[in-house]
Design brief:
Layout (H helix, E strand, L loop, with lengths): L8 H34 L7 H26 L7 H18 L4 H24 L5 H20 L13 H8 L1 E2 L2 E2 H19 L1 H11 L1 H6 L4 H27 L11 H11 L10 H20 L6 H27 L3
Antiparallel strand pairs: 1-2
Helix pairs in contact: 1-12, 2-7, 2-10, 2-11, 2-12, 3-4, 3-5, 3-10, 4-5, 4-10, 6-10, 7-8, 7-12, 8-10, 11-12, 11-13, 12-13
Length: 338
Amino acid sequence: MPPSSSPRSRPGHLLSHLRGHFLGTYGLTALTVLLFLVFSVALPDTFPTRDNVSSILFNQSIPALLALGATIPIVTRKFDLSLGYGLGLAHVLVMQLIVNGGWPWPWACLVVVVGGAVAGALNGVLVEFARIDSFIATLGTGSMMYAVSGWITDGSRIVPGPDGLPAAFTGLYDSRFLGLPLPAFYVLAVALALWLVLERLPLGRHLYVIGSSPRTADIIGIPTHRYIVYAFAGSGLVVGFAGVLLAAQQQTGNPSVGLDYLLPAFVGALLGSTTVRPGRANALGTLVAVAVLAVGLAGIGQLGAQFWATPLFNGATLLVAVGLAGYTSRRRLRTGSP
């Protein structure tokens, strides 16, 4: 008979497993709270204030939306590098339709959001049906989006006339609800909707199966090609909505502004795959990751960091996020965790 494990080893193994599970599931959330407390002690007059919290929520709403958009293809182990270019094109197109086209702003916003979903679906078609690697396909379409942005603006900015933009349109970004910035509620709504789709609906479960093992997905009859197109279309839909908010925030059309948001989006999405559901890209994990980045960037900014500290922080965090995502994924496979 095989030797039974000693009674002492079982509690020790269980304790180690529980500790690892707790750190993987809640560690990033605890880090967010810890960072907030540290910066609050270091900057008691400015950091733990309502104005600072509102500023963080305002500034990080668009990066958070892009991170949630990036999360959807990552679930299937695909990457959409056109996010930043799509954001730039979306906000330029909104400004073009409202300022130069004279469109009512609701129709302009609707067209851009739907157009974002169509552009995302096109990315999915190139990846799945043309069999082009997602990095190459989305980088190519992103470059084309950037070209279209330059063509629309003729290389310059779109500036509203003396009357400015409709107040209802700019209110999409700068309004408040229950004392908090309205964009924060957009982020929360998108995160909850994405959580519901990925964790509670068959569509989400099928996307996770595709990401874990495309061969298994084919064997059990999941239409892999169609579902991946859906994933890219969902990403494009979120990007289009983020572009509308960016136009309401900037109130000018700048064709190159979207590129600054690409790296933070992937940092948030990849770092989010190391928490809540470690080893799996998930909406709530992305939300927690964005909170860590927001608190960290706000803190080092108020401590007087130089301008280069932000890209350094984002780049280093991306490397850590990729490493941790790989580690947690391998650990999940070894332990057989769901």
